[in-house]
Write a structure and sequence with these properties.
This protein is an alpha+beta fold. The chain has helices spanning about 5-15, 25-30, 40-65, 70-80, 100-110, 120-155, and strands spanning about 175-180, 185-195, 205-215, 225-230, 235-245.
Length: about 250
Amino acid sequence: MADEPDNETTETETPAAAAPEAGTPEAEAGTPEVGTSAPESAPVAQETSPAAEAPAEEQAPAAEAQSPEPAAEVAEADEVPPVAPVAAPAEPVEQVSPKERRRRARSTHSEAKPQRTPQERHDERLAVRKDKAVRRRARRLQERAKAAERRKSSPAQEPLPPVHAQTEGTRKVRQGIVVSNKADKTITVRIDTARRHRRYEKIVRSSSTLHAHDENNEAHEGDVVRVVESRPLSRSKRWRLVDVLEKAR
């Protein structure tokens, strides 16, 4: 009775084991005997695993060797067409003023001038001024000649009519009494005025004096004369004698 369970276990384990294929490393190594335990078969699987990987590594280079053309086509498809070179933008030209250009030219001038005395420098300045004066005079004469030619060639322009006609305003005339004729060709005339006050309607009398020009010294003290305003004849004379209306008694 004790041997029966062992037979059952061996019978159940044998169908579970798969038969190795022909030509495989396991078939060549040999199958383990029936009834062996599992620990004995494990080292066999570890020893045969490197042999199983070897054919896979050999197949990979063979596959690559069989298809070299598709790889070349893919490489050609991935290539980017050449692009024409883009011209670099032109650098902006620096705008330099004439003064700055002359300053740069002077700074790049490396020729050393000989040492000169103050008198030589003064003489050189005088020579430069004289040369400039000669050229300036010649240019002015040339401009004057051109202006004279233009005036001769152009027709004479007619004078423009005056905007306002010349009119002489009405000059003031005053009548008064001579109070002094001591100065030569000058008389002092007193002008008496009387006017009515606006509010009180009272007669307000006032007087003022002025100096008049008497060319022939005709007027004397006490004479009643008529004077008219004129241009300034002296510091105080703005009037001129017209005639003597009444002689003094």
